Amino acid sequence: MKLLSKKVMCNSHGQDSSYFLGWQEYEKNPYDETRNPKGIIQMGLAENQLSFDLLESWLAQNPDAAGFKRNGESIFRELALFQDYHGLPAFKNALAQFMAEIRGNKVSFDSNKLVLTAGATSANETLMFCLADHGDAFLLPTPYYPGFDRDLKWRTGAEIVPIECTSSNGFRITESALEEAYQEAKRRNLRVKGVLVTNPSNPLGTTLSNQEIQLLLTFISTKNIHLISDEIYSGAVFNSPSFVSVMEILIENNYMNSEVWDRVHIVYSLSKDLGLPGFRIGAIYSNDELVVAAATKMSSFGLISSQTQYLLSAMLSDKKFTKMYIYENQKRLKKRHEMLVQGLQNAGISCLDSNAGLFCWVDMRHLLRSNTFDAEIELWKKIVYNVGLNISPGSSCHCTEPGWFRACFANMSEDTLNLAIQRLKAFVDSTNNNIQNHHQSSLSSKKKSFSKWVFRLSFNDGRQRER
């Protein structure tokens, strides 16, 4: 018997989800234009590679920041030695200002209420530790990012209860769905500590409406619980309606002097908006002093390096650059989104109307053998192994309806995306031809059977008349 902890033996990480399994298959056989042209194309990774040239151009023009210098003098020693886990003040100020800029400077953020974490993954888990005890529950609208099963539950012991949203209203959050999820938690003897939403949504690629945010604030006020708004895609909104942060609605509706003000927490990251997931830059923003204090202490288990903070404080403080970058990045995302949507339409596949993110929520229900999740996984396996595309099935996102898939478009070149669309169109055409041939074969068989039946009927009728 192995003398390991229960946590090590626990199977709640979610690594066996089809979301992660698709990645594993891609890694075994990755597409490469020259070395492996028939390999699997990665469309399951929400990564923004469209604006790297802008970042690299800034680095070339700012050698001091990239070389860890200040006024031409090396500060390598200063950055390499011990740093307080509260973070570099210059970076926290620059990040707070960047968050405001993305929101059109309609709201401002106090850097003293900002907690730095090693990415949004760490931010969300830290908030779980701050807000929920083992066995407490958070409500999440479906479909939701598959990684939340790991981030929110695995080490914290918290539970997730789905708020079941459907395609009938574009997967929008409703009051009845919120209440049903709350009652379901009670039936399971779970204490609900809050609601977590992603705005813009991953995987839907849509922004929450003002009405939905107000509904959520009313709900948490009535139930005396928390709201976490994960806004890591806030700078990736490329079509109307524009992005509205929960902070804007709080201020507009004068929540500042209410208890709700302290029970709303924002998660942010530079992984998506700046395309820097490898830098591990995340943040928690909260008006609750106790949450900020506790999360800051916990952040010592997942710090951002001083070198990274120094480099990005210089970049984010360059207002001319950030303004240009936000505009150009959103413009490129819009073009790439349109390219995928149009390509899918040409293949006879539609998508949910979306205005944000690095992906589309793709409707393939018409390609299912039956309206079941087994049929969805069967279709997904064909797309991964036969078509050579790794997309994420809706069931991995806890979607309540089989046949929806998330397809990412910003982590590859235009040529690779065109190839992915061509592969998918060929698959759909082949599938439709097989269905048509099966239908024609079935009709032909019925005709033959009918002819024999008519012949027998005529023969017997003739013999009866002869008698």
Structural overview:
The protein has 467 residues and is an alpha/beta fold. Helices cover 46% and strands 13% of the residues. It has a seven-stranded mixed β-sheet, sandwiched between helices. Helix 11 links the parallel strand 8 and strand 9 (264-269). Helix 6 packs across helix 13, helix 7 (119-131) crosses helix 12 and helix 14 (319-346) runs parallel beside helix 16.
Keywords:
seven-stranded mixed sheet, four-stranded antiparallel sheet, 46% helix, disordered C terminus, alpha/beta
Radius of gyration: 26 Å
Largest sheet: 7 strands, mixed
- Beta-strand portion reads 5-15%
Distance between the termini: 87 Å
Low-confidence stretches: 461-467
**Average predicted confidence as pLDDT:** 91
Kindly name the structural category: alpha/beta
Form type: globular
Number of E strands: 15
User: How is the largest sheet built, in terms of strand order?
Assistant: 4-10-9-8-7-5-6
Proportion of residues in helical segments: 40-55%
Number of helices: 16
Please summarize what this structure is:
The chain has 467 residues and is of the alpha/beta class. The protein has helices at 6-9, 18-28, 52-61, 63-66, 76-80, 89-102, 119-131, 148-151, 175-187, 210-223, 246-252, 289-298, 306-316, 319-346, 373-387, 414-466, and strands at 41-42, 69-70, 73-74, 114-117, 137-141, 159-163, 192-198, 226-230, 264-269, 282-286, 350-351, 359-363, 389-390, 392-393, 404-408.
